[in-house]
Amino acid sequence: MSHLCVLLSLVTLHKVFAKPSPTTAAAAELSFLSGVADTTQRFSLRQNEHQSSGDSREECVLNDVIIERHNLICFHKGPFQKRKNAHNTESEKCCNALWLQGLIEAHQKQYCLDRIARIPDVPSPAFILESLSEGVHVANIDVRPMYYLAMDHEIPQTHDHGAIFPNYRQIRRVKARDEHRERETIRDLPNHGISSYSPFHLVGFMPGGHGIQQYYSQVVDATNNMLLMNGRVNGTLSSEGGLHRSFYQRVTLSWDEITLFSTKSSSENYLMTMSVIVFLPLMESVFIDADDPFLVEYHDDSPEAILCRSSLLENSFVEEGRIVLSKSKCNIQFVSSETIDIEQPSFASRQYVVAFRIDTTMEFSINLSSELLKGMQVGIDYGTTLHIRYLLPLSKDNTAVCGAVDAYAGMVPISIQQPILYSANFRFMEADNHDAVSHGILDTHALVDTHKNPEESVAPDPIIVHVAAGFDGDYWWVTSITMLSALIGGFMIMKSVDSVSMWC
Within a 10 A sphere around the Cβ of 320, how many other Cβ atoms? Predict the structure, then answer.
């Protein structure tokens, strides 16, 4: 009996570890069932630290430390319309799955339940690909991120452990079926993650990623004029505003070349429609007011509010006037699956993930001698207001208080996640004939390939802001002054109201 158990164990281990990885197998051979992933990134953070001096005294030194952020995500299989709404049960299942797969410790389960964020319900890249491609069914790669949790820890700067790797590294725990309907488990080694486009893209199981590129190329070839486009999004935080700062974001989409099937003159008007989805993870220290999420602009010639703007970015064709933008229209929608609590301080708040759904239409004239439009770039700009929550007051034994004469005394560093481009698709057509000349979706495979696009493959570092937290030793005198000011203000208001009533 014992020999039989050993034999079964060996067979199980072989099924778990000896199966071909989806990074080398075609996607058609694997059908996703369930899975979780830990996508890590590293960045540098400057903070105060205690260091022992030669005379046995501790000195405060401002050092750069390496932070490793674990972006933990539970994935589920579509379709989009059948997604369940039992949030508490599903979040508990997600935290249990993260623990059972060894991505969090047992004592971190409660932290997971208290902080985990539900990802907004938006169409997946596979769903978009299927909607663009008639007769193409990609249900086996319709994988969607469902829950998100970010956890940080400091890495000692010894040997290569403290090195900052340039891109996201993903460790997967996935259950799937092969072409013979047999179950298999994908388990990446903990110290050997796979390069990923973002935490929200499961490597090997989503369009445009590693492992399904061969299958994806067949889908592209089988669909007339299907193109892949490159894309990225960057956020810039204003240095002004204190606890309420403007956060400007730009989505950049580009094409290596687009073929123009012109049958008329050399100069024609073309129409391009684009749909973009951007995720923005919000850590415990920041929030967005869902009732007023966007920065609004107005122009003298129009009373309508402008929430986003699309434009052609400079290249040789634009500079020479061979591509001229005649009109553009941009619509943006703020999406959140949960009610964002704006009253909670950072130490009592949870994490959130919000989405921006952008639809834009651009009309322009093209005057080219060739049928190839090369190097075209489109920029989509929008902004939101990030509100910083009240932080936990510092205590005397807190290392952040170290260095009273330092510029960062009483200041706490908080990190603000960069937005992540989740999906994008476009249709390119003649203005007077809406039959698509070309169409396609975002190429997430190219950005993972560091040799092809070394600059765009780098995982963006979070934005670090130092915010005043206050000291817990100042509690009583701050409370006393606040109460005294409130009493004086109330007395003055009562006196003013009394004088008005006598006058009446």
Answer: 9
Phi/psi at 216 (5° precision): -65, -35
Residue ranges of the chain with pLDDT lower than 50?
A: 1-2, 4, 6-28, 80-83, 209-216, 221-223, 263-266, 399-401, 403-408, 449-457
> CA torsion 151→157→158→160, rounded to 10°?
70
With vertex at residue 245, the alpha carbon angle to CA 242 and CA 248, rounded to the nearest 5 degrees, is: 155
In which element (H, E) is residue 267 found?
strand 267-282
Inter-residue contact 402 to 49 (CB < 8 Å): yes
pLDDT, tens digit, for every residue of 106-142? 999 999 999 999 999 888 777 777 666 655 555 556 7
Q: Are 424 and 446 in contact (CB under 8 A)?
A: no
Q: What is the DSSP string of 378-401?
A: EEEEEEEEEEEPPPPPB-TT-GGG
Residue 358 to residue 331: CA distance in whole angstroms: 6
Give the whole-angstrom CA distance, residue 492 versus residue 110: 49
What's at 31, amino acid-wise?
S
Residue 222 one-letter amino acid: A
Q: What share of the chain is helix, strand, coil (3-state, %, to 5)?
A: 25, 45, 35
Which of 418, 424, 458, 459 has its CA nearest to residue 254? 424
pLDDT for position 252: 93
Which pLDDT tens digit goes with each residue over 422-447?
999 888 888 777 666 677 888 877 55
Q: Mention every residue, 6+ apart, whose C-beta is less than 8 A from residue 68.
A: 40, 41, 42, 152, 153, 154, 155
**DSSP assigned state of 473:** G
At residue 2, what are phi and psi to the nearest 5 degrees? -65, -35
Q: Using the structure block, give the residue that is written with the tokens 């022992």.
A: 52
> Do 313 and 327 form a contact (C-beta atoms < 8 A)?
no
Q: What is the Cα–Cα distance from 348 to 367, expressed in whole angstroms? A: 58
Residue 349: its pLDDT value, please? Answer: 93
DSSP 106: G
